């Protein structure tokens, strides 16, 4: 039920059992909004001001990479609103106008919470992904591919959003979650979990079974830090699978020192020395832009980044009413009237 009035708030029920995340319908109905926006509709309606024409602007107080526009437009689709926005993927500065909405307050005021949430989270993830991609030398073919591996670090309701934004806006070459990859038209990227190696009992036995059970189009990429020395395990895999082995994955836990530049160099050297120079090395495990820079020239072919992207701080977004019926307004401390930004383009 659309929350048209405060009397509708009590009709929102969280029936069990259900996931705590909101459905698309609940977002569109306003169920995720801060309740004071619902109360405001009743108050403004009572004084005949709910349908007043306004201009509202969204800005941030810090630098960032703009993302989340598509979901805002999906939320507002079909409403009689004029919307301008900074193109997605553009960098922005503090207090730069990022989006401007013109129309009746009735048509979008209820959605302020959701709109700011879309933009804040997506811009945070996009910026973190871009920093990793830049640290890897830029997007391929110039740089080393960075994959978004952060789905496990987030609530599953938004993991696909993070993955898709990391690829579409942040420049990642792929993503691990099935839905996240599908949202950007890609096949999900991944290897095998340690649990598969543990349950099989041996890395090579797991690799042979994997190769026999799965279609040829799926990459043969295997962890080499479960039971034995990483270099030794890499050579065992290469000898067992031959040309079928696409890559080995280094994910040494922090308890054993983590993945280091010297470890990457050694595995690369030993593979090359044994004639397996075509086997690539995928590096994962607590990667940050700093660590990616450290390992760029050590022989890594792919970086899988999880927590750094997933745990990125949202970019704090603010929406202000800047015009009411063409008259410039602002709260104390803000500049009245619209703040021009020639980079905005009409999006609705």
Shape: elongated
Task: Give the second-level CATH assignment, the architecture of the largest domain.
Answer: Alpha-Beta Barrel
**Derived structural class:** alpha/beta
**Helix amount:** 25-40%
Q: Terminal Cα separation, in Å?
A: 25 Å
- The number of helical segments is 13
Strand order, sheet with most strands = 13-12-1-5-3-14
Q: Give the CATH topology of the largest domain.
A: TIM Barrel
CATH class of the largest domain: Alpha Beta
The SSE string, one letter per element, is HHEEHEEEHHEHEHHHEHEHEHEHEEE
The radius of gyration over CA amounts to: 25 Å
Percent of residues in beta strands?
Answer: 15-25%
Q: Mean pLDDT, nearest integer?
A: 95
Beta strands, count: 14
Give the uncertain stretches in residue-range form.
none
Compute the number of structural domains. 2
What would you give as the CATH superfamily of the largest domain? Answer: Aldolase class I
Biggest sheet details? 6 strands, antiparallel
Please explain how this structure is put together.
The protein is an alpha/beta fold and 348 residues long. 36% of the residues lie in helices and 16% in strands. It has helices at residues 24-29, 35-46, 69-76, 105-108, 112-135, 156-168, 178-183, 194-200, 203-213, 230-241, 261-273, 289-295, 307-310, and strands at residues 53-60, 64-65, 82-85, 91-92, 97-104, 146-148, 174-175, 221-223, 247-250, 280-284, 302-305, 317-324, 327-328, 345-346. The chain has a six-stranded antiparallel beta sheet. A six-stranded parallel beta sheet has the order 7-6-11-10-9-8. Helix 10 links the parallel strand 8 (221-223) and strand 9. The protein is elongated. The mean pLDDT is 95.
